[in-house]
Amino acid sequence: MIKRNDDKPCLFVLDTNVLMHDPTAIFRFKEHDVFLPMVVLEELDAGKKGMSEVARNVRQVSRFLDDLMRDADKSEIDAGLRIHPQAEPGRGLTESPSGRLFFQTEPLAPETALRLPGTTADNDILGTAQVLQERRSGRTVVIVSKDINLRIKAAVLGIPAEDYSNDQVLDDANLLYTGMSALDEAFWEHHAKELDAWREEGRTFYRISGPDVSDWYDSQCLYLEGDDSFEAIVREKRGATEAVIELVEDYRLPRHNVWGINARNREQNFALNMLMDPELDFVTLLGTAGTGKTLLALAAGLAQVLDRGLYREIIMTRVTVPVGEDIGFLPGTEEEKMTPWMGALMDNLEVLTQTEGGDWGRAATNDLLRNRIRISSLNFMRGRTFLHKYIILDEAQNLTAKQMKTLITRAGPGTKIVCLGNIAQIDTPYLTETTSGLTYVVDRFKGWHHSGHVTLLRGERSRLADYASETL
């Protein structure tokens, strides 16, 4: 894209999709000014109706603009409205200096502007930016849009254009917290002599001190390179240089199966330990197809609902984003409409019930499971409170940060939420690996004592699936 001159103050021309994506975007440009073309206001007006997340965002933008314009006369609007600092939940007011908000108040069509074919809103925005470049030569005019094609056209015309990145959690998805850390032998040998160890209720704990401990997080998984016998989880950080770790249960052993399922690798073993831990209220599992995310979460849920009685029922939900063309209207109740989206649930239930004796045994088990597993739609989550439920959110990478917050804040006492996903398979428009709601919660929850995260690395589906993942 075109490089902008950082020596000049900037005037950011916002595309409609930026405000639809983040209603607070107008407050995110610090001391720089913001310009809203009239076509953007028209598109916001057209998108305000409905109960979708986009429509709610549009209405919120309108309320923000109305608040900024309150008691302002025409001369003040023409001079630019001072953008007041915006309060963020839990953070108070932003302390950075604020710029001004300008609206398009007159037709902008100079003879020097390149006439673009058609009368699309994108071309209106591009033409407006061209005029602003001429009339405000002392400023760098930058188009901000989530639309890649608009940014390409802007680059062709020599107009600086950028993606809206304020909601970007990380600069690179490779920097995302994996939930695991390898200990080298030198580290372990250094601490082994002065290690403080004890047992409590059949569990083994160690107290470790040293500067390396400062990089650990609560519930982080630790292991020794090349040694499957030492696998532990951080239970408590005591200051910057001391931590208490606990040896994890080895669910790879046949006698330690979970609803008939054993872990097949180190990452799955860590995942089962977190899923079976009632002290962890929020668990996230990332991994490619075939790494066992849904199977592990479902097996742990059944064990804790039916065997231990820790939760009353399992609630399965996911984002209804089709892979190909939408097949249209689905008849029936909420659960019946969601059933076609829950193929992963049905496939994994078949695996979990195949060990039962005979057809009659499997049928009886399936009837029992149907009474304890509910399928719900995310569309009806707002306003609900879940008590003593085990909630599995599949395909969580397709949620925005705001949608993720809406779901997680539904959790009442005794509820555990498990989020599953693969950030390399995002189907929601304008979401990327670094802006996905799943990436957002993994990064924000990594320091909380009652949450855990593991990135599953190895596929365990079949040799065909493994080969396809590596070579296709």
What would you note in describing this structure?
α8 runs parallel beside α9 (293-307), α9 packs across α11 and α13 crosses α14 (437-445). It is built from 15 helices and 20 strands. The protein is elongated, with a radius of gyration of 26 Å. The chain has 472 residues and is of the alpha/beta class. Helix content is 32%, strand content 21%. It has 2 domains: 10-162, 5'-nuclease (Rossmann fold), CATH 3.40.50.1010; 260-471, Rossmann fold (3-Layer(aba) Sandwich), CATH 3.40.50.300. It has a 6-stranded mixed beta sheet with strand order 3-6-2-1-7-8. The chain has a 6-stranded mixed beta sheet with strand order 9-12-13-14-11-10. Mean pLDDT is 83; it is low at 87-95 and 321-327. The chain has helices spanning 16-21, 38-46, 53-69, 74-79, 121-135, 148-156, 185-192, 266-275, 293-307, 334-338, 343-353, 358-372, 401-408, 437-445, 463-471, and strands at 10-14, 33-36, 81-82, 87-88, 92-93, 100-103, 140-144, 161-162, 180-183, 196-200, 203-209, 221-224, 227-238, 242-247, 282-287, 313-318, 373-375, 389-394, 416-421, 451-456. β1, α1 and β2 (33-36) form a beta-alpha-beta unit.
Count of individual helical segments: 15
**Assigned CATH architecture of the largest domain:** 3-Layer(aba) Sandwich
Task: Determine and state the CATH class of the largest domain.
Answer: Alpha Beta
- Low-pLDDT runs: 87-95, 321-327
> What's the overall average pLDDT, rounded?
83
Spatial extent as radius of gyration: 26 Å
Name the helicity range: 25-40%
Structural class: alpha/beta
The CATH superfamily of the largest domain appears as P-loop containing nucleotide triphosphate hydrolases
**For the largest beta sheet, what order do the strands appear in spatially?**
3-6-2-1-7-8
Number of strands: 20
N-to-C terminal Cα separation, in Å? 30 Å
User: What name does the CATH topology of the largest domain carry?
Assistant: Rossmann fold
Q: Tell me the β content.
A: 15-25%
Count of structural domains: 2
Biggest beta sheet attributes: 6 strands, mixed
